[in-house]
Design goal:
Blueprint: E1 2-6, E2 12-16, E3 21-25, E4 36-41, E5 47-52, E6 56-61, H1 63-67, E7 77-83, E8 89-95, E9 100-105, E10 110-114, E11 120-123, E12 149-150
Antiparallel strand pairs: 1-2, 2-3, 4-5, 5-6, 6-7, 7-12, 8-9, 9-10, 10-11
Protein name: WD repeat-containing protein 64
Organism: Haliaeetus albicilla
WD repeats: 82-113
Length: 173
Amino acid sequence: PILASAHENGCICLWSIQGNLVKELLPFSKYPLVPLTALCTDICTKMLLAGSKEGHVMRWSIASFLEDPQNNKNQIKEELCWRAHSTEVVDLLHEEEKNVVVTASVDGSVRLWHAMNGYYLGYFGQPRKLELSDISRLILPCDVNNFPTTVKEESKHMEKKKCEYPLMLDRDK
């Protein structure tokens, strides 16, 4: 078993059940790192979802890593990032049967998204019936203007690396 914790510096830490740090992850994003406020997985723990203080949702593939965490070839891959709300995401839920992600925000809205591509499906309380199978049209909520971003290649920013930059005085400069 692996425990996941979300942190104020935007990092996700994966821990062994004994309390040892197994891996640290940083989301790949063109935006500055912001506090993570919600985490969830699907039932089979193939994907990890995280919500942020700025309203973003990120999705990682974790299945191969969890099969053998000691194997460095089995990496955790961030696959998708989208803006779900204009304010903080306070809760996430992945509903596997319908393949949707439900997000809740401090603004009081509860929205539904397609889990595989981050397409907006609707919100609770809307006047029209929710169509969970229709993902042919790409629409956005009124307070969001960014389409989902697919992370296609491996990024150096995804894993937190410790670097040392010693201060050295160069008298010639």
